[in-house]
């Protein structure tokens, strides 16, 4: 385990509009506001999403298992925001549904807002952390410099 103790910094309230891309909007805000580390909460409407629901296979190479959510529907999610070598990267897990159809997973394949999506970003200050490419999985994983 790696960990570091930080403090809550700035808190951002965002309203995303119909058709906006969830990842693009949150990562753009992080870049503009220079939010290096944060926690993200979302609630509202989702029009469609391409959701990772687990690994299709683990070896020889990790491969995501994607499922489509076709709304419009409701969404509630939590995530983290850390930078890699290219900029801010959102890691979000969400539950979304419409009637008896629902799905839970990571909508990293794309997620489009229906009507409105309310987003809260809580900046974490006083830590050193980033997403770094893991040689075994090939995925950019969170690495935290400990405060020893």
UniProtKB/TrEMBL annotation:
The keyword Magnesium does not apply. Keywords: DNA-binding. GO terms for molecular function: DNA binding. It comes from the Bacteria. It holds the Pfam family PCC. InterPro entries: PPC_dom (IPR005175). Residues 6-145 form the PPC domain. The keyword Metal-binding does not apply. This is Putative DNA-binding protein with PD1-like DNA-binding motif.
